[in-house]
Amino acid sequence: MAVTSILVLVSLGVLLWQLLKKSRSDIFLQRFSGPRKLPFLGNAWFIARPTERLKNLQILQQEYGNRVGMTLGSQKMLTVFHPDDVAKMLTVFHPDDVAKVLASKEMNRSWFLELLFTDWLGSTCLLTAKGKEYLRMRKMYLPMFSYIHSENLELNFNTHSKTLLSVLKKEAGKGAAVEVRWLLTLCTLDNISQYFLGKSMGCLTKFDNEYPAAVHNETKLINQRIYLPWLWPKVCWNISSIGKKEKVIREYLQDFMDKVVQERKSEIFTNTPDISVEQMKDKFQKTGLDYSLSEQLGGNTEFTDRYIRDLMNSCILAGHDTVAAGLTFALYLLAANPKEQAKLHAELDEVFGNDRDRNVESSDLTKLKFLECCIKETERLYPPIPIMPRTSENDFELDKNCVVPKGVDIVVSPWVTHRLPEFFPEPEEFRPSRFFPENCTGRHPYAYFAFSAGVRICMGIKIAIVLEKIILADIFRNFTVELEDPTLKVVPVGDIVVFPRDGLKVKLNPR
Ligand code: HEM
C-alpha cells in the first residue's frame, strides 16, 4: 500500500514537473507577442473556427507584426498525443522571412501533413516525404508534370471545358442563378484525372458518380482531424465515429484507383504482352499512369502497384481542388468587378472574334495576357492553399538574432503576405493590372507565392494556368457573369484548400 502511494506521488510529481518546466521552444516563443493564451487551449481558440481563421491570421499580423509566436493548445497536453514537440509555431509574414523558409532544403512540410495524409496516400507520398528522400522523389516524378509530356493536354482540357459549358448553358437556360462551385470541382476532377490517368472520371456527365463525392468527403473528414487533437493518435482516430467513416471512404477511393491501375495494365499487356520499356515509352507515356507503369516495367522496384495507386491519388488530390478554388474565386471576383470583366471580354473578343465555340489553342493561350493577370490576382486575394506550415530538421536561422529552435513549426501564409500594403497597395481591391509586367518590376520575389516557391514549389503550375485559362476563356466568351446577390461578400473557409462557405451562385447571361 505504502509502495503504491509513493509510486502514485512520484508519478504525479513527474507529471507536474513536465507540465511546469519550460522547454527551449517555450523560452524562444516568449520573445514574441501574440494573442492571449488560454489554459489548455493556448492560442488554438484564435484560429479554431474555419470561417474566422484567415481573418484572424491577418489580425495577428496587423496587431503583433511580422513574426508572431503561437501555441496550439497546451503543448504539454498535446505531446501526450504526439511524441514530437508539436503545436508550437512561429508565423512569419514578411517576404524576407518567407524566402528563407521556402528556399531552405532543411524545411520539411509539417508533421501535420503526415498525420492527415499517410493513411490515404501512403507513407512515401510526395506531400509528406522529408529531406533528401523528398528531393529524390520530386526529381523522379518531374517527367509526369512536364507540359510537353501530354500531347493531348489542350485537346482534352477543351473537351471537358465544353462539357462544363453545355451544363452551364442548360442550367442558365432555366432562368435562375447557377451554383457553380461544385460544377467547377467536377470539371477539374475530370480534367486532372484525364491528365494523369488518360481517362476522365465522367464526373460532369454521370451525376450518380460516387467518386467526386467520395474525394470531397474524404478531404472534408481529414480536415476536421486537424482541430480535434484527441483524435491525432491513430488508435483514437480508428475507434472514433468520424475515423470509421473516413476509413470506409478511404478504402473506396483506394479500391477505385487500384481498379484503374489494373485496367490500364491489362489494356497494355493484353494487347502487347511482350512490349519492351522502349516501345512503351514511345507508344504510351502520355500520362503519369503510363509513365509509372513504364518505370515498373523497366525494373524500378519502387513503383509497385500500390505505390502507383497512391501516387495517382496524390496527384489528383493536389491538382483538382486547388484549380477548382482558383476558378470559383475568379468567377466571384470578375462578377463583383464588372469593369475588369469588360476588359476580359474585350481581350477574348480580340482573340476569338465572335467565335464562341472553337477550342482554345496553344497560340491563343499566349495571347490571353489579361486573363492570366486575372488568374494571378485572384490567387493573390484567394490563394487556394492559404497556409503552409513547415518543420525544420535543425535549429533554423531566420536572422542572427532569431534562431528558431528545432521543434517550433514555422508557418507562412500567402493569405496574409499577399495583403501586405507595402507590396500590394489597397490590398483588398481586385486589380489584375498589378500583374502587368511593368507593375511587377521591383516587387519582392516572395511577396506573391500562391503556388509556393523555392524547393517545394507546386509541380503543376503550368498545367493549372493552362486549365484555368481554357475554362475561363470558354465561360467568359459565352457569358457575362453577375453575382446573384450584388452585395455578396463570400465567407472564405480556411481549410487546407480555401473555398467559399456557401458555395457561389452566379447569373450567367448569354453574350
Ligand atoms: C490554382 C492551382 C494550384 C495552386 C494554387 C497550387 C498550389 C500549390 C502549393 C502552394 C503547393 C505547395 C504546398 C506546400 O508547400 O505546402 C503545391 C504543391 C503541389 N502541387 Fe499545386 N497548385 C495548383 C495546381 C496544381 C495542379 C493542377 C497540379 C497537378 C497537375 C498540382 C500539383 C502539385 C503537386 C504534385 C505538389 C507537391 C509538390 C511537392 O511536394 O514537391 N498543383 N501546389
TrEMBL record:
The keyword NAD does not apply. Transmembrane segments: none annotated. The keyword Metal-binding applies. Keywords: Endoplasmic reticulum, Heme, Iron, Membrane, Metal-binding, Microsome, Monooxygenase, Oxidoreductase, Signal. Its main location: endoplasmic reticulum. GO terms for molecular function: heme binding; iron ion binding; monooxygenase activity; oxidoreductase activity, acting on paired donors, with incorporation or reduction of molecular oxygen. Residues 1-25 form the signal peptide. Belongs to the cytochrome P450 family. This is Cytochrome P450. It comes from Allacma fusca. The lineage of its organism: Eukaryota, Metazoa, Ecdysozoa, Arthropoda, Hexapoda.
